[in-house]
Amino acid sequence: MEKINFKELFLGIFYILIYLVVLPVLVSSLCGWWHLDLSNVTVSVLANIAVYILAILMFLWVFRKSIFGELKAFFMNFKTCGRVAFFNWLKGLVFMMLTNIIIISLAGGLAVNEAGNREMISALPVFSALSMIFFGPFLEEVSFRKSFRHVFKSDWAFLIFTSLLFGGAHLLSLLTEFNLAYIIENWTQLLFIIPYGGFGYFLGKAYLETDNIFTSIFAHMLHNTLSVLLILMAGV
């Protein structure tokens, strides 16, 4: 049976809860304390940026013994890390495109997460670019992958677990914005864990092949940059 480091597992889950639950609630509470209206677009954007910055600071502190060394190593070995990032991104992109074609035909539309991203990019292009190209890749790679690097002895177990975690996280909007009846009626939306998880698998491979989280961050940034540009160009 696969040996699991439960201490690292619980810590990884704890960090994700801090990032996705505690910090947003904290910032929201502070906005209420200061009588700031979160329905105001500017206030909402600034609140989200505050959450991102706090989460980044938290992860930089938690992984301070390794993350700065990995950043230096990434730039020193950019040719190798960049090549690994590019080819794993390309494999993940092909997998994601092929599975999306099949699942979209079954679900009758885009993933809720993807539809939401497109709406946000159209409405708030600058904020969307910042969050999807810079904040998102760093936070998602560190929280969903680096946090669990030492949980499993087997690389396969690590890849499967983090891929499912990454894919499931991209379905959170489906679970939080709609009721159970909607989810049951639109159960095909759950199938989108396949393309998201599959893409996450190749991001995980990029990380493992270089033992550097910035390789997967770079691949993730590359993907999101292309997605943002394509959506902005389609809206022109």
What does this molecule look like?
The protein has 11 helices and no strands. The chain is mainly alpha-helical and 236 residues long. Helix 1 packs antiparallel against helix 2 (41-62). The longest helix has 30 residues, at 78-107.
Question: What's the number of structural domains?
Answer: 1
Share of helix, binned: over 70%
Report the portion of residues in β strands. under 5%
SS-derived structural category: mainly alpha
Overall strand count: 0
User: Which stretches are low in confidence, meaning pLDDT under 50 for 5 or more residues running?
Assistant: none
Global mean pLDDT:
92
Described by strand count, sense and barrel closure, the largest sheet is:
none
In N-to-C order, the SSE pattern is HHHHHHHHHHH
Per DSSP, the total helix count is 11
Our Rg estimate from Cα atoms comes to: 18 Å
Q: What gross morphology would you assign?
A: globular
Task: State the distance separating the first and last CA atoms.
Answer: 54 Å
Short description:
It contains 11 helices and no strands.
Helix and strand arrangement:
Layout: H1 6-33, H2 41-62, H3 67-76, H4 78-107, H5 112-123, H6 125-144, H7 155-169, H8 172-177, H9 180-185, H10 193-210, H11 213-235
Helix pairs in contact: 1-2, 2-6, 3-4, 4-10, 4-11, 5-6, 6-11, 7-10, 10-11
